[in-house]
Design a protein that fits this description.
The chain is α/β, with parallel strands linked by helices. The chain has a single domain (4-9, 37-369), classed as Zn peptidases (Aminopeptidase, 3-Layer(aba) Sandwich), CATH 3.40.630.10. The chain is built from 13 helices and eight strands. It has helices at residues 4-13, 66-71, 77-81, 86-96, 105-120, 165-182, 204-212, 241-246, 248-256, 273-285, 303-306, 314-318, 352-369; strands at residues 124-129, 134-140, 145-155, 189-196, 217-224, 264-269, 290-295, 324-328. Strands 1-2-4-3-5-8-6-7 form an eight-stranded mixed sheet, sandwiched between helices. Helix 10 crosses helix 13. Mean pLDDT is 87; it is low at 4-59. Residues 135-364 form the Peptidase M28 domain. One of its GO terms (molecular function) is metalloexopeptidase activity.
């Protein structure tokens, strides 16, 4: 999530009076990559300019889980949920969670991994060079309504010097795992999965895409940004007064849950609300509390009201009048290592069971949105 969020959130919410989140784990040692990587990216066989489908370096796949393979199916959203492999997600997070500011060596490696994973999942891959950064966009054409698009995306850049496991290796790895699973299904609508660049610098990558998206109808855009942190400790979740007043039903649920930071949060505009509610339904069938916060057209771009809920890449689509929703763990309201301000944002602090529920629920919701 963007670096300005913490400053804006603190001023808007007066968080000094709120209880501090409890970490789900402590890391005493920095990763070997926590130092800043600078300079232009190294030349790779997977790099390309804008507008073409490129060949990316092959990424070795982990051995398939026999138990998952025996349950997995592709003929319904429910069957696809059983195809999600937490080990694949964890492996990608571990690889990505190093300092990766735009232009750095590891930024290039993560970009290449996005392209390779999407190609392996059966997507046609394009690297969109929009001038200051590069988006990786995979497209799998729909079988019946190819002109209607469902999009799932996550930003792959991060601030310098911070591993960024939750923000946003968790989201990128999640998008790639959902892409792998849905690549097995025959979907009526076209599915696009993207890794956005330069979210931390002002949503540049997603804005570049949204501003040039033409020739098709966007049914809905799903955004992953921080989907891996949770805590079962009581009163570990911050849910500030303005949000509690605007969403009293969710506030009551969180109170009944004793303030535990273990629920999935979804922010949607009115046009994306049905898709958000479908995700909520799927998650709660897994036993995972989920809260949907729907903003009106007047609220969703009002920075003085609930701007803190629109400071990730879903906003780029709202600005164009396109339906979008944001799936996250509430970020700064839960994770003290946000942007490494209260510790290192490393992969060992993440909750794999929580992330798995996010991935399963989103897989089903995206499959349903794509017409399965």
């Amino acid at each position: 999530m963007r670096a300005v969020r913490r400053a804006v959130g603190m001023m808007w919410l007066g968080l000094g009076a709120c209880p501090s989140p409890v970490t789900s784990g402590e890391s005493d040692a920095a990763t070997s990559s926590s130092s800043t990587e600078t300079g232009a990216p190294a030349e790779t066989s997977g790099s390309s300019s804008s507008g073409g489908t490129t060949a990316a370096a092959t990424t070795p796949e982990p051995a398939p889980d026999a138990g998952i393979a025996s349950r997995c199916g592709s003929d319904s959203p429910e069957a696809l949920m059983d195809c999600v492999d937490p080990a694949r997600w964890a492996e990608d997070v571990a690889f990505m969670a190093q300092s990766r500011p735009p232009g750095s060596i590891h930024w290039q490696k993560v970009q290449d991994r996005c392209a390779a994973a999407l190609e392996q999942a059966g997507f046609a891959v394009q690297r969109q060079d929009y001038g200051t950064g590069i988006n990786v966009i995979g497209t799998r054409e729909g079988a019946a309504a190819a002109s209607e698009v469902v999009l799932l995306a996550a930003h792959y850049d991060h601030v310098s010097g911070c591993p960024g496991a939750d923000d946003n290796a968790s989201g990128v790895a999640g998008a790639l795992e959902v892409a792998r699973v849905l690549g097995q299904a025959r979907l009526p609508r076209t599915l696009m999965v993207a890794c956005w660049d330069e979210e931390e610098l002002g949503l540049r990558g997603s804005r570049a895409f949204a501003q040039t998206f033409t020739g098709a109808k966007l049914a809905v855009a799903f955004n992953f940004d921080m989907i891996g942190y949770a805590s079962a400790a009581e009163h570990s979740q911050i849910f500030p007064g303005p949000l509690a007043e605007r969403f009293p039903g969710l506030a009551d649920e969180l109170t009944a849950n004793k303030g535990r930071a273990d629920f999935i949060a979804v922010v949607a505009d009115a046009s994306a609300e049905p898709f958000a509610l479908e995700l909520e339904r799927r998650a709660e069938r897994l036993g995972r509390l989920t809260g949907v916060m729907t903003l009106t057209d007047a609220e969703k771009l009002d920075d003085d009201a609930f701007g803190v809920l629109s400071m990730s890449d879903h906003r780029s689509f709202w600005e164009r009048g396109l339906p979008a929703l944001h799936v996250f763990d509430t970020g700064v309201f839960r994770n003290p290592a946000y942007h490494c301000t209260g510790g290192l944002d490393t992969s060992d602090t993440l909750d794999h069971a929580f992330a798995t529920d996010v991935l399963k629920a989103t897989t089903a919701a995206v499959a349903a949105a794509a017409g399965l």
